[in-house]
Every structure is written in structure tokens, then in C-alpha cells.
């Protein structure tokens, strides 16, 4: 095998695309998405997504990852934070509207 040139990008490992190197980022992402899809559960799942997203961003700086794994973990963390916040707001509005129409 030939040595890699000094400025060559890291090879992408197939496992990085399948298994997240930062599981909290995946939890934040999926919890945030479900908080938006399930309006009634938004006020419960949304804050969980935001908190796990912030924690995974802080831990992502400490955990050793490939450049691809770090990028996907950061993207999943931000997706969890944004969708969790939106899911919380949408869920609260949905519940308030349902209570006012009774």
C-alpha cells in the first residue's frame, strides 16, 4: 500500500455512514423528527431532542471521529435541536387549539 500524501483527505469508512460515531446526535435527530410528526408528543419529545442535541455538540468536540463522522454528527445534532424546538412549539399550539375548541 502506498503512503498517503500529506494533504490527502481521510478515506471514508463505510461504517461511519451506517453506525453513528456519536449516538446522542442520532437520538437528538430522531427524537426531534418524531416530536414534529407526533404533535401531541411534541412538548415531551422536543425538549429531549434539544438537550441531547446540545450535549452531543459539546461531546462531539471531545470524541475522536473521522471528518465524515464529525460532519454527520454535527448535522444530526443541529437537526435535533431545530426540529425539537419546532416540535415543541407546534405541539403546544396544537394542544392549546384543541383545548380552546372544546
Task: Tell me about this structure.
The chain is mainly α. It has one domain. Helices cover 72% and strands 0% of the residues. It contains four helices and no strands. It has helices at residues 14-18, 23-37, 42-60, 67-100. Helix 2 runs antiparallel to helix 3, helix 2 (23-37) runs parallel beside helix 4 (67-100) and helix 3 runs antiparallel to helix 4. The protein is elongated. The model has no long low-confidence stretch (mean pLDDT 83).
Overall shape: elongated
Q: Could you say how many structural domains there are in total?
A: 1
N-C termini distance: 72 Å
Average residue pLDDT: 83
- Structural class by sheet pairing and helices: mainly alpha
Report Rg: 18 Å
Helix content: over 70%
| Largest sheet report | none
Extract low-pLDDT stretches: none
Order of helices and strands: HHHH
Strand residue percentage: under 5%
Q: Please report the number of helical segments.
A: 4
Count every beta strand, where a strand is a DSSP E run of 2 or more residues. 0
Amino acid at each position: 500500500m502506498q503512503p498517503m500524501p500529506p494533504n490527502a483527505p481521510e478515506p471514508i469508512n463505510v461504517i461511519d455512514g451506517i453506525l453513528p460515531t456519536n449516538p446522542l446526535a442520532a437520538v437528538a435527530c430522531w427524537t426531534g423528527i418524531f416530536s414534529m410528526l407526533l404533535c401531541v408528543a411534541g412538548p415531551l419529545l422536543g425538549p429531549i431532542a434539544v438537550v441531547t442535541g446540545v450535549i452531543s455538540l459539546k461531546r462531539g468536540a471531545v470524541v475522536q471521529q473521522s471528518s465524515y463522522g464529525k460532519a454527520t454528527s454535527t448535522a444530526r445534532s443541529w437537526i435535533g435541536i431545530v426540529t425539537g424546538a419546532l416540535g415543541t412549539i407546534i405541539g403546544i399550539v396544537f394542544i392549546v387549539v384543541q383545548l380552546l375548541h372544546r
